[in-house]
Fold:
Amino acid sequence: MIVFDHVSYVYPGADENAVALDGVTFSVRPGEHVAVLGANGSGKSTLARLANGLLTPSAGRVTVDGIDTGDLARAWDVRSSVGMVFQDPDNQIVATTVEEDVAFGPENLGVPAPELRTRVDEALAAVGLAGLEAREPHQLSGGQRQRLAIAGALALLPAYLVLDEPTSMLDPQGRLDVLEAVSRQIDAGRGVLHVTHHLADASVADRVIVLTAGRIAFSGHPRGILGDEAALTSLGLSLPPIGRFAAELRSLGVPVPLEAMDAESVVAAL
Amino acid sequence: MRLALRDIGYTYAQGTSFAVRALSGVGLEVDRGELVLVLGATGSGKSTLLRIAAGLLSPAEGTVMLNGSPVSRPPEIIGRVGLVFQSPQTQLFAETVEEDVAFGPRNLGRGHDAALEAAREALERVGLDWRTFGPRSPFALSGGEAHRVAIAGVLAMRPEIVLFDEPTTGLDVSGRRAVRVIVEELRERAGVAIVTHDVEEFLGVADRVIVLSEGVLAYSGGAGALIDEPARFQAAGLRVPEVLRAQVMAREAGVPMTCFSLDPHAAAALVAGARERKGKRERKR
Structure:
């Protein structure tokens, strides 16, 4: 379990009143999908970086399966159990072919050749890129490159994945492909902490945390917030067009469920 | 001013074994006061077309014209046609916001005072008070502010046509709203073309749309004809916007839809109305 226990963070050199994260407490269990929403500057990315020890708290504690991320002697254990995927896939692709890129992490750790092959094959299959092993990463679409970045994280067999706006630079199809790859990892028992500003991405999570100015303004099932347009607006969030369409249909007497955030689930209610 | 691209063709790494054909026979016209949307799947040639329109790439085939006269040297366009890149805030570099925004006009040889004045005007235009923001470091801004400063850097050159490459990528609600306001205000005085995946944000306000598919023109015309025939999106390898897809699915499920809308409120009224008509008809029987 990833546990944030009253975590605060102030960036070095920043005014001490400019708290990026302020007393945040929550946890992510194995197999659980926790989405973190918030406007730009609300502390979402800071939270993601605290989850695997890239940053350590100014106050409070972050633990991963009981290990304190501030314990430098165990830093590697933390990093290897929490895989991290960032917004721009091009910043995290290092090799000249797809398979070499996925192999980079485990190879660096000295994973022997036969196992390395298995890990690369399984990671690529998990994200739907099997068959593209010999491609050059720049020949892939944005969505494929982001899935390649996820495969690179998976090859280290992490227990958790932390995703920092993994779909925000992708076209609509690329976004759906990435979300599908993520949902397969949750089914496989990995805990996922997914930072996003797409409400539709968050609607499928087990739990949603909304941050404003570094504090948790809401924590609970997506249903608890998705139906409340006024609350969303006050938190700097807005429903995607399909969500506004569903809300309008509800007000016209069509029983569309609150978490319906795609055409299929809205039309099913007709 | 009117920018017109005719029969544009472009091949990357021409003459090598890595040659990639990016565009063939594509046209684009943007007039003062117009908002033109350029849609297309990843790799369809949208960004290449924008770079040619902005004078950053010379087309291998075809002509670029300003007010009806062919432009012989693409750099002649620079300053008159401005291009706002995707995630432009990553290109901020100067010590102060004002210096950063003034760089463009100064680089065009417009003199210190004129450049400064243009920078201050551009900052106001993107909704940032120059007295407050001018002296700040561009690296001490919020994401949304940095994005607007970067747009101001292009507007300070006082371009007559402004091109945007994916202007809403990575922005939250208020950032997207700020971009919409800037674009709407800009089209009053200049021509605007936007390359985007964010069909839902801009299709409703566009005067014209072109759709690229694998480097060729798949559609050119009004937004209405695209909305009425969502299959055109699919034909160009684009995903149909979700609200539109829901209406198509509703029709396939037997709701007697007569037309579609991209606007969520109007679309809901159309679907609910059609569903009611169907209910009444069934009750009569």
Remarks:
- The mean pLDDT of chain B is 91.
- The interface with chain A takes residues 41-43, 87, 142-144, 169-175, 197, 200, 238-239, 241-243, 245-246, 249-250, 253, 255, 262, 264-265, 267-269, 271-272, 275 of chain B (CB under 8 Å).
